[in-house]
Amino acid sequence: MDKSFLDWPFFETRHRELSAALEDWCAAHLPVDHGDVDAACKVLVAALGAAGFLRHSGAGAGEALDVRSLCLIRETLARHDPLADFAFAMQGLGMGAVTLFGTPGQREWLEQTRAGRAISGFALTEPGAGSDVASTATLAERAPGGWRLTGEKTYISNGGIADLYVVFARTGEAPGARGLSAFLMPADSAGLTIAERIEVIAPHPLARLKLDGVVLPDAALIGRPGEGFKIAMSVLDVFRPTVGAAALGMARRALDEALARARRPRAGGGTLADHQIVQGHLADMALKVDAAALLVYRAAWTKDMGAPRVTREAAMAKLYATEAAQEVIDAALQLHGGDGVRHGSAVEALYRDIRALRIYEGASDVQRVVIARSVLA
Prior knowledge:
Layout: H1 13-29, H2 37-50, H3 67-80, H4 82-94, H5 96-101, H6 104-114, E1 120-123, E2 139-143, E3 146-157, E4 164-170, E5 180-186, E6 192-197, E7 206-217, E8 221-222, H7 228-263, H8 276-304, H9 311-336, H10 346-355, H11 364-376
Parallel strand pairs: 1-4
Antiparallel strand pairs: 2-3, 3-7, 4-5, 5-8, 6-7
């Protein structure tokens, strides 16, 4: 695989060393058996924690979260095994609110997830409020010594295997987005049940959660009451570029598979790569990969250089990288012909794996709205 992008000025020596170490680890440990995705994710979290890579998924007190490292790790894992990327990413997204806004007590949980000893979930989406976070209906009402939460969350990654969730609920300080708060909710909390396990196109642990009067102490509140929307958007600012990085990793794998197929000798002589039309498709694929990488690592570098918000850059990175990856993978599958749709082939698996990335953490049309508001402001 072409690694020349690591020489771009976005990266430092430590990033190149991290990339090389992770590449060696992936070669020795991936892919894992996906037959039981719950078990596979538990194994991956423990292994990534033991190897020290999950330390990059969050930041302790006094530490800075390095978004370039997050992106490099997600890109590399996704290229080798998208389920490994999922396992890593959810440790970061799930505890992103604690990394950015958590108290010392809450950070004790963060150290568990960074070590791979606990699994986290991010409970934001609801049945009636997918992309519209401001319409969150789950209620958090004052109770003696804390809060009582009632409502439902759906399409929650790691639902059913997580040890704790960051959950967003309406505390009512103001209408809409200004009346939400964030809470740290252990999975064994009384009143929390897994109402449904959800099967999707590329299987991973996913569930609908029901909160029936879940009582949490005051210490579970992340930040201040009414700051939930700000917290959620701050977390997504950091992690949206990393979704683009995961898509980039899948696109690189698809390009590599396409190049190998194009160079393979054919029964009648020559190769697919001898044909100019195939060369044109390969050129388009390579162009989209490099453009996606530039947008992803620009967003990550901008955040690492101290920008308080990178909403526009993050939206551009996620939108372009995920849409481009879908196109690159589709082109790779087309080049493989019938073998491309054969179950178990690399490009067939990528075709299923990429689709969800254009939806979660803000669907593509949401990113377009974010970008448009930025350029119109």
